[in-house]
Write a structure and sequence with these properties.
The complex is a heterodimer of chains A (about 325) and B (about 325).
Chain A: E1 3-5, H1 6-20, E2 24-28, H2 44-48, E3 53-55, H3 60-72, E4 76-80, H4 91-97, H5 101-104, E5 114-119, H6 134-138, E6 144-146, H7 151-163, E7 168-173, H8 176-179, E8 181-183, E9 197-200, E10 205-209, H9 212-226, E11 231-235, E12 238-240, H10 244-254, E13 257-260, H11 269-281, E14 290-292, H12 304-310, H13 314-325
Parallel strand pairs in A: 2-3, 2-4, 4-5, 5-7, 6-7, 10-11, 10-13, 13-14
Antiparallel strand pairs in A: 1-8, 6-12, 9-11
Helix pairs in contact in A: 1-7, 3-4, 9-13, 10-11
Chain B: H1 8-33, H2 47-55, E1 63-65, H3 71-76, H4 81-88, E2 106-107, E3 112-115, H5 123-137, E4 143-148, H6 155-167, E5 171-177, E6 180-181, E7 184-185, E8 206-210, H7 214-229, E9 235-240, H8 259-265, H9 270-280, H10 286-308
Parallel strand pairs in B: 1-3, 1-4, 4-5, 5-9, 8-9
Antiparallel strand pairs in B: 2-3, 6-7
Helix pairs in contact in B: 1-2, 1-9, 1-10, 2-7, 4-10, 5-6
Classes of the chains: A alpha/beta (about 325), B alpha/beta (about 325).
Chain lengths: ~325, ~325
Amino acid sequence: MPELTVIEAVRETMQAEMRRDETVIVLGEDVGNRGGVFLATDGLIEEFGESRVIDTPLAESSICGVALGAAVNGMRPVAEIQFADFVWPAINQLVGEASKVRYGTNGAKTAPMTIRVPYGGGVRGGLYHSQSIEVLFAHTPGLSVVAPATPYDAKGLLASAIRANDPVIVLEHKRTYRLVKGEVPAESYTIPIGKAEIKRPGSDLTIVTYGLMLHYALNAAEMAAENGIDVEILDLRTLRPLDADAIAESASRTGKALIVQEDTPAVSISSEVAAIIGERCFFDLDGPITRLGPPELPPMPFSPVQEAAFMPSPEKILTAIMKLAKI
Amino acid sequence: MPTDQLSGARLLELYRTMVLSRHLDERVWLLNRQGKAAIAASAQGHEAAQVACVEATDPSKDHYLIYYRQFTAMIALGTEPEEMLRGFLAKEADPMSAARQFPLHGAHPRVDLFNFSNVIATQLPQAAGVALADRLKGSDAVTIVYFGDGASSQGDTHEAMNFAGVHKLPVIFFCENNRYAISVPLEKQMGIESVASRAAGYGFPGVQVDGTDVVAVHEATKAAVERARAGDGPTLIEAAVERLLPHTTDDDHTRYRSADDIARMAERDPIRILSDLLKRRDLLSVDEDEEIHSLAKQRVNVATDAVDAEPYPGTETMFDHVVDISTYDSGGNS
C-alpha cells in the first residue's frame, strides 16, 4: 500500500473525485497554475482545465457565495479557503446562508458543497496564519465539520464530504500536511461523517482529541506507557455531528477523560465533549473531566518562544495524563 | 415568449398582473394590521419594473434570485395569490418554505426562483455561482438577480459583480432603486449619482432606466438577456422606482420623509402611469379599468378566505430537512 502525506492524500482525492464526477469543480485563490499555496491542487488544472479549476479573485465571500450558487444549480464545488484565518469574510455565506439552504426551502434546494480550510498553528504563522476556527462552524445546525488528522482519514472524509448532499467544512491541519505520513489504499473509499475512531486502545484513561493534537497525544501516550499508564486515544475526526456514543463508551470504560485541543478552551469543542461525558458517564468516572488547551490568548504569537508556550505539546499532555491517572 | 416589442395585448396583460399585485399587496398590509400577517414588505411602486423585467426573460429555463420586495415578479412568474398568502400567513401549505421563513423566502415550486436569506446582497455572489454552473453545463439560461439600492453598498455586491465581470457570466444585476435603504437616503449610501455607473468598474454595461415605464424596462432587460445568452456577459440595470409605502409593516416613513416627498410619489405610481398609457392608446377604457381592479379584488378576496382557514404547520415537520445524513455514510450520491 502506498504511503502518502496528508497533502498528497488530499490532492489525490480531489483528482479522483473530479474524474469520477464531472460536476465536481475546484475554486479558490491560486488553485490554478500555482496549484494552491500548499500544492493541494497541484496538477489539477492541467488535467481538468480552467473551466473546472477556477482561480478566483481574492475575495472569500464570493468564493463561498459562488460555490453555493453553483451547488444549488447542479455542481459539487470544492472551494479552498487559503488559510482558515481568511475565512471570516465568508462566514455569512457559510454559516448564514449555506447551512440553511435545505431547511429554509423545506428540502426543495440543497447545497452539496465542500469548503476546504487549512487551519491550525505550530507553523510560525503568527496571529493570522495559525487560527483554529472550528467552533463557529461546529455550532451551526445544517453544517457538518470534519477534521481528519491522518492521510487515510483525509482521503476518506474528503471523499465523503464531496459526495454528501449538504455543505461540509473540511478542516485540514497545516502542520500535518507534510509532517504526517501513512498508508493510503489506491482505490476509492469513504469514511462516514460523524464517526470517531479509537486510534490507540487503552484501559486507564481516555484522551479525546482531533487534528494535530492526535499526533501529540499519541506521542504522549507512548511516554505514559513507559510510566505504566495505558492511555486510550479517541480521534473525533468529525466535529459536527460529534460521535457522542463513541465518546461516552470510551470514557465510561476507562473512567477518566482528558480532552486535548489546540483551540482555546472557552466555549469550544472540548466544552461540548466535557458536557457529553458529564451527562452520559457521570457514574462511571473516577476522576474529573479534564481539559488541556492553550491559554485564552489570541492564537498565537509569532515569537518562537511564545508560540511553543502557547501550543499544547506531547510533554504538556504527558503531565496532564500523569496528574489525572494518579487521582 | 418575449417578443421584439410589447404588443397591446401583452401590455394589457402586464397591467392586469400589476393590478393584481397591488390589490394583494394592499390586502397583506391589511392582514398585518389585523394581526394575521406578522410582517410584509410592499412592492407598491415597484410593480412596473418587476413585471417588465420578468416579461423579457424565459421562465422555462432562466433563474431568478429575488429579494423580499419581489411581490410582482413572483406573480408574473405564475405564483397564485393563494400561494403568496400562505407565506404571509405562515400556513402549512406555503410552497416556498412551509412557513419556516419570512414571506417570499425559500424556493418556488415550479420555476427556478429562490430567496434564501434576509441578509442583504448575499444573493448576488450566489447568482454568479448559478450562472457559472450554467456555463459548465452548456446551458444558455440567464440568471436574474434582484436587489435594492441599499444592497449596492454591501461588499458582496462588489465581489459578485467583479467575479461575474471576470468570467463574463450570463447574469443580469437588476437594481430596484427606490432611493431609500429603510430610512437612509441614497446620498448617504453612495458618493456617486447612480448605481449603474458602478458597472464601469467591472467591465460590463450599466443601464439606467425609468422603473415606472414598462416599455423602457422591458427593452433594457431584453437587451441584457440577449447579451447574456450570446455569451457577452453581465449587465447592471438600475430601475428608478418609488417605494410608495414604508420599508415594511414595522416601519413609519413619516419619521424620515417629508410630507411633500411622500405626496410627490403619487405622480410616479406605475399603475397610474400604465393605466394612462393604455387609455391614450385606446387599449383600455375607464370601464374596463374598473373591471380589472374589481376582478383583482375579487380574486384576492377568494384567496384570502380560503387561506385564512388553513392550518399552520405543526411541530411534527420541524425536524425535517436539516441535513441529508443518508449521504454521510458512504457517499450516498454514488
